[in-house]
Amino acid sequence: MNKLRLSIILSILAIVxxxxxxxxxxxxxxxxxxxxxxxxxxxxxxxYYGKGGTVFKDDSTTLKLGKGTMQSSNKIKGGIYLLLxxxxxxxxxxxLQNGDNFSxxxxxxxxxxxxxLKGKSENNQFYGYQRFxxxxxxxxxxxKTAYAQAKTKKDSNVLADQMRNKxxxxxxxxxxxxxRNPKTFLATLFNALAEPEVPEYKDWPLxxxxxxDSTFPSNYYKQHxxxxxxxxxxxxxxxxMYEPKLKNYMDKWVIPMPDTVKKECDxxxxxxxxxxxxxxxxxxxxxxxxxxxxxxxxEEVFVYLVEEYYMKGKATWLKEEQLKKYIKRAGDISPNMxxxxxxxxxLRNMANQFVNLTAIEAKYKLLIFWEADCGHCKKELPKLxxxxxxxxxxxxLQIVAVESSNEVEKWKKVVQEKKLRSGWLHLxxxxxxxxxxxxYDVYVTPTIYLxxxxxxxxxxxxxxxxxxxxxxxxxxxxxxxxxx
Length: 484
Known about the structure:
The chain is of the alpha+beta class. The chain has helices at 3-23, 111-114, 123-149, 153-180, 185-193, 216-223, 242-252, 258-272, 276-292, 298-310, 320-333, 375-390, 408-418, 436-439, 467-483; strands spanning 28-34, 41-47, 56-63, 67-72, 79-85, 91-96, 100-106, 116-120, 346-349, 354-356, 364-370, 397-403, 424-428, 447-451, 457-460. Helices cover 44% and strands 18% of the residues. The strands form three sheets. The protein has a seven-stranded mixed β-sheet, covered by helices on one side. It has a four-stranded mixed β-sheet with strand order 4-1-7-8. It starts with a helix and ends with a helix.
């Protein structure tokens, strides 16, 4: 091989190697030019985390005559980021990925139509989509307005069909972009946004009676809900879409029974294993969802998640102090979950006589912890009293109301004013010897439990709106058990 040829080959290799190094650089470089900004203006680069509404600052620069640069050599996950003017007069979303190096020129007052991009990024495609959305939105809103003003059923049906077809335009646009550019983040994003397309009626399976299965559409939708979402791509966490999608699934598509919810949580967490941010966010969200849920029985899911994941060292990002809070909260809840025996309380009645909670004979006991100065208590207790007089007494229920603040005179006055007498047993613990706050997790008032005749907790944190349903459900369950 002659020296000239060897020199050429080495030069080519050097260029290729340098090119690869340049592409492999971590971080980003953004050159910004807002042509209608003539005074100094500070602008922030922010990222989403799981949802919209809250953003986190990554970088900033001061535009001089509308120009500025943001640059970092730190590796980023990538996702949809936000350029936000400090005075909050304008903002724009961009796709930003590790290694991106591009410039953008536009006008602050009208960003999308005036945007010009150069360099390495997916933002030309992303803003092609934004421009499509502008035209699409105008057309859809026009149909929506016409539908609201339709004067005949025929007109309404025609416009409804047109809106459905318009909706298909958006779906088809996303599908087309994803198909043409399958390896892009935009394709990943569009696939994640896609909703299951339920087969047409003619393709529905038959049920046992030989008729079209009416449960098929909802079952199919739920089964395929996560088909397009890549749980292993952490970039999706740095967009505003994951939490709304997860919330919709947990709120609308998961049967709110503790055992069912626990299985769903395990499935979702398993999908996210190996993806650091997605796993972290999924476990955090599901734990918070269970802890704050107003659906009875979800406290069992919270305790399960803490015991199965937090206490087994699967939340490694948490500091020791944070971990202890989760464990303590689960410990506070665990003794008084549904299905557990109620702890006996030795209390005093208004005549200062001792009464044992578990010795009170009744088919059901509604155990209420309340305070005389609690505004919500003063609204809830009379509603329970009305419900008792109308329905609850029929079930052999006894209301056991425990005053929890030791404001004795105020307590007696409220009882008298609200006429809480028939069906009520009023008790208190003047010496604070029962530690009821700890066992029954009384950190807000009113806190209400429903006990059966064996003093087993069958309802936790119930209220006047659902107590009757809980009793009826329990009655049915007991009757079904007897008839087996």
